[in-house]
C-alpha cells in the first residue's frame, strides 16, 4: 500500500547505482534464470492492474497470489464502496485471475488510512466478519499504522481481536515514515492482544526492521519495487544473512509505479548471486504459502499443477472474460481478428 | 417429502457421515444461523462433483432442474437455502435475508444462489438478480442461471429470454443446455438471430451449427438463402444443420430446396439435433 506523491512509489529501501546496473541486466533476461520455478506473491493489488500483467505473471510462473484489501488512492465516502470492493476481491477479481490460471486469494480489512474516518470505520467493522468467513479469504489485512494516529491504533487493535477470534493470519502494513518505531509498535500491540507471532506477517520490512521481527518469531515480508529504484541486491544480502526461514517476498504492485514481476525478477537475481534453488523456493513460494495456509483456506493442490483441477471451475470448461474474447492473445500479431 | 427433505436425501447419498452430521446440526438452526452456515459450507463439505446416483434425483424434485456439473458443496448450499423458507420469516424478512446473501456473495456463493433460484420463495422478487446474472461476465455465474435451471423458462419475459439465448451464443456456449429452448422459442428471437448470423458472416465468422435449430418453426422463404449458405459451408456440422432444418420445416419451399440439393445434403442424423449438441467455440485464442 503506497502513495505516489512524486514520480514513483517511495521504496521501502533504496539501492545504489551499481545495483541499478545489475538490476537492468536481470530486468532484460530474468526469464532464463527462473525456468521451471513457481512463485506465490502474497501481496499484490490486482484490481489496479491490467490483463497484460496477469498474462506476464502467468508466463513468469506465478501460480497463486494474495490481494490484500487496501485503499484506492483516495478515500471512500460510504460503506457501499467498501462492500462492493470486498465483494470484488472475492468475486470478479478472483474470476479474472482464474482466466489466466492464477489462483487468487485475498485478505480483508480496514486499511490504516481510512481508519482515520471514525464514523465510516465503525460501519466497516460491522461488515468485516461476514467477509472474513468467505471461502478463499486467508487473513485480516492489510491493517496497521500509517500516520500512527490514535484511530489507526483503535482499529488495528479491533481487527487483531477479530483475527484472533476467527483464527486467521494477519497481514500488517508498516508505515513509510517512522518505520522502525511503527514496526516495533505494531508487533508489541499484536503480542499484547495475545496473537501467536507466527500468525502475523509483518510487511514492508527493511534491514533496520528485519532482525527484531524475526527474533520475536513473526513472519517478515519484503516488498520489492521496480529494479531501477530499489536495491534488490539488499534483498539477496538479507536472505544470505538471515537464511530463508520466515522470510517472504512480495511485489505489492498497485496503481502506483510498481512491478508485478518483482518476485520472479528477484528470484533471478538470487539465482545469479548463488542462492540455492531451495532457499529461493522458500522465500518466493513456500513461506508465504505456509503462513497464509494457517487460515485453512489454501489448498496447494488447487494451483500447483495448474488451475484446471479445480472442479468448481471445470464445468463445461467454458468461462468468459467478455463475450467472444479469448483471454490469451498474441500481442505480436498485427492482425486483429 | 418436501423439497428440502428431498435435497437432504440426495445429499445423504454422497456426503460422508461427518458432513451429514454438520448439515443436520446446522439445519435445525434459525434463519440467521442458516445464512452463516451457507457461507461456511466449503469448510465442512467437500467439493467433489455430484455422482450419477445423485444426479438421477433431480428431475424428480423439480422438472427441468439439472445438476450436471454441480459440486457437493453447491448442493449443500442450495439445501440450506431451501430451509430458509421453513423458518417462518414473512415475505419482507425473507427477501431481505436472501438479498443480503446475494449482495455479499463470493463467486461460489453466487453460483449456489442462482442455482437455488427455482426453489426460492417469491420467484418474482429475483427477476433483476436473474437478468443481472445473464449480463455477468463471470462464466460460472452465467452458467448457473442459464444451464439446467428452469427459472428463466418459467419466469423470464420474452425480451429477457431472447437476451439469454443471444448472450449464450455470444459467450461461445452451447445453447442446448438452456432449459425450455423449444418452449420459449419465438419469432422475435429468430429475427435477431438471423441478423446476428449475417453480422458474423460479414466478419468471416460463423454461428454454432445447432443454433439453426431455432429457425425450424419460423422458417420463411426469405431465410432460405441463409440455409443455402449453410449447404455450401465447408463445415460438415453446418451442412447437417441445413439438412435438419429443411427436413423438419413445414414450409413447401423448404422441401423444394432439399430436393434441389439432395446430392449435396448429408443424411438427417438419427439423433436429430442431438448430433450437433456440443461446444463449438467460434473465438479461439490466437
List the main descriptive attributes of the protein structure presented here.
heterodimer; A: 337 residues; alpha/beta; TIM Barrel; globular; disordered N terminus; B: 286 residues; mainly alpha; 57% helix; 0% strand; EboA_dom (chain B); hydrolase activity, acting on ester bonds (chain A); UCP005295 (chain A); hydrolase (chain A); TatD-like (chain A)
Q: What is the radius of gyration of chain B computed over CA atoms, rounded to a whole number of angstroms?
A: 22 Å
The ordered H/E elements of chain A are HEHEHHEHEHEHEHEHEHHH
User: Beta fraction of the residues of chain A?
Assistant: 5-15%
Q: Kindly, what is the distance between the CA atoms of the first and last residues of chain B, rounded to a whole number of angstroms? A: 52 Å
Q: And the CATH topology of chain A?
A: TIM Barrel
Instruction: Based on the coordinates given, report the CATH architecture of chain A.
Output: Alpha-Beta Barrel
Unreliable spans of chain B: none
Strands across the major sheet of chain A, in which order? 1-2-3-4-5-6-7-8
Write the H/E string of chain B, N to C: HHHHHHHHHHHHHHHH
Average residue pLDDT of chain A:
87
Helix amount of chain B, in percent? Answer: 55-70%
| Mean pLDDT across residues of chain B | 94
Query: How would you characterize the largest beta sheet of chain B?
Result: none
| Number of contiguous helices of chain B | 16
Sequence-ordered SSE layout with sheet pairings:
The complex is a heterodimer of chains A (337) and B (286).
Chain A: H1 17-29, E1 39-41, H2 51-59, E2 62-68, H3 79-90, H4 92-98, E3 103-108, H5 118-132, E4 137-144, H6 150-166, E5 170-173, H7 179-192, E6 200-202, H8 210-215, E7 219-223, H9 232-242, E8 247-250, H10 262-272, H11 277-293, H12 311-314
Parallel strand pairs in A: 1-2, 2-3, 3-4, 4-5, 5-6, 6-7, 7-8
Chain B: H1 3-14, H2 17-27, H3 31-44, H4 52-55, H5 58-61, H6 72-84, H7 91-103, H8 107-116, H9 127-135, H10 139-146, H11 150-155, H12 158-170, H13 187-202, H14 224-231, H15 236-248, H16 252-260
Helix pairs in contact in B: 1-6, 2-3, 3-6, 6-8, 8-10, 9-10, 14-15, 15-16
Amino acid at each position: 500500500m503506497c502513495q505516489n506523491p512524486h514520480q514513483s512509489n517511495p521504496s521501502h529501501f533504496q539501492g545504489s547505482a551499481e545495483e541499478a546496473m545489475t538490476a537492468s541486466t536481470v530486468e532484460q533476461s530474468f526469464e532464463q534464470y527462473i525456468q521451471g520455478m513457481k512463485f506465490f506473491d502474497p501481496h499484490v493489488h490486482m484490481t489496479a492492474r491490467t490483463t497484460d500483467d496477469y498474462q506476464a505473471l502467468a508466463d513468469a510462473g506465478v501460480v497463486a497470489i494474495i490481494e490484500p484489501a487496501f485503499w484506492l488512492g483516495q478515500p471512500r465516502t460510504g460503506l457501499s464502496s467498501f462492500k462492493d470492493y470486498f465483494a470484488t476481491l472475492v468475486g470478479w477479481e478472483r474470476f479474472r485471475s482464474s482466466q489466466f490460471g492464477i489462483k487468487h486469494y485475498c485478505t480483508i480489512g480496514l486499511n490504516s488510512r481510512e481508519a482515520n474516518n471514525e464514523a465510516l470505520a465503525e460501519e466497516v467493522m460491522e461488515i468485516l466478519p461476514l467477509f472474513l468467513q468467505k471461502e478463499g479469504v486467508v487473513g485480516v489485512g492489510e491493517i496497521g499504522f500509517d500516520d500512527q494516529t490514535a484511530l489507526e491504533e483503535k482499529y488495528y487493535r479491533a481487527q487483531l481481536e477479530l483475527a484472533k477470534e476467527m483464527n486467521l493470519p494477519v497481514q500488517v502494513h508498516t508505515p513509510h515514515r517512522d518505520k522502525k518505531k511503527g514496526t516495533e509498535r505494531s508487533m508489541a500491540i499484536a503480542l499484547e492482544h495475545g496473537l501467536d507471532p507466527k500468525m502475523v506477517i509483518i510487511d514492508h520490512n527493511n534491514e533496520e526492521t528485519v532482525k527484531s521481527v524475526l527474533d520475536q518469531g513473526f513472519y517478515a515480508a519484503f516488498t520489492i519495487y521496480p529494479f531501477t529504484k530499489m536495491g534488490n541486491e539488499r534483498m539477496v544480502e538479507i536472505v544470505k544473512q538471515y537464511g530463508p526461514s520466515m522470510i517472504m517476498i512480495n511485489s505489492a504492485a498497485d496503481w502506483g509505479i510498481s512491478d508485478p514481476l518483482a518476485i520472479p525478477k528477484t528470484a533471478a537475481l538470487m539465482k545469479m548471486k548463488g542462492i540455492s534453488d531451495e532457499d529461493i523456493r522458500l522465500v518466493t513460494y513456500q513461506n508465504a504459502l505456509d503462513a497464509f495456509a494457517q487460515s485453512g483456506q489454501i489448498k496447494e493442490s488447487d494451483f500447483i499443477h495448474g488451475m484446471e483441477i479445480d472442479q468448481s471451475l471445470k464445468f463445461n470448461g467454458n468461462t468468459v472474460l467478455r463475450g467472444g474474447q479469448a483471454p490469451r492473445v498474441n500481442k505480436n500479431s498485427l492482425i486483429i481478428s | 417429502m418436501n423439497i428440502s427433505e428431498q435435497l437432504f436425501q440426495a445429499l445423504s447419498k454422497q456426503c460422508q457421515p461427518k458432513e451429514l452430521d454438520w448439515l443436520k446440526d446446522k439445519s435445525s438452526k434459525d434463519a440467521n444461523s442458516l445464512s452463516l452456515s451457507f457461507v461456511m459450507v466449503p469448510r465442512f463439505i467437500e467439493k467433489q462433483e455430484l455422482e450419477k446416483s445423485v444426479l438421477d434425483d433431480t428431475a424428480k424434485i423439480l422438472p427441468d432442474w439439472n445438476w450436471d456439473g454441480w459440486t457437493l458443496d453447491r448442493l449443500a448450499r442450495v439445501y440450506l437455502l431451501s430451509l430458509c423458507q421453513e423458518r417462518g420469516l414473512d415475505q419482507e424478512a425473507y427477501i431481505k435475508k436472501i438479498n443480503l446473501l446475494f449482495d455479499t456473495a463470493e463467486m461460489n456463493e453466487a453460483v449456489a444462489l442462482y442455482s437455488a433460484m427455482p426453489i426460492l420463495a417469491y420467484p418474482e422478487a429475483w427477476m433483476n438478480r436473474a437478468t443481472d446474472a445473464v449480463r455477468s461476465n463471470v462464466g460460472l455465474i452465467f452458467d448457473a442461471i442459464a444451464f439446467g435451471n428452469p427459472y428463466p423458462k418459467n419466469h423470464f419475459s420474452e425480451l429477457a429470454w431472447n437476451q439469454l439465448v443471444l448472450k449464450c451464443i455470444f459467450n461461445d456456449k452451447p445453447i442446448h443446455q438452456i432449459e425450455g429452448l423449444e418452449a420459449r422459442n419465438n419469432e422475435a428471437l429468430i429475427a435477431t438471430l438471423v441478423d446476428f448470423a449475417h453480422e458474423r458472416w460479414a466478419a468471416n465468422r460463423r454461428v454454432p451449427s445447432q443454433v439453426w435449430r431455432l429457425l425450424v418453426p419460423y422458417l420463411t422463404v426469405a431465410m432460405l438463402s441463409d440455409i443455402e449458405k449453410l449447404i455450401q459451408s465447408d463445415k460438415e456440422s453446418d451442412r447437417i444443420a441445413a439438412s435438419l432444418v429443411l427436413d423438419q420445416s413445414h414450409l413447401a419451399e423448404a422441401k423444394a430446396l432439399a430436393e434441389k440439393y439432395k446430392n449435396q445434403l448429408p443424411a438427417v442424423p438419427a439423433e436429430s439435433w442431438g448430433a450437433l449438441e456440443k461446444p463449438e467455440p467460434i473465438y479461439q485464442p490466437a
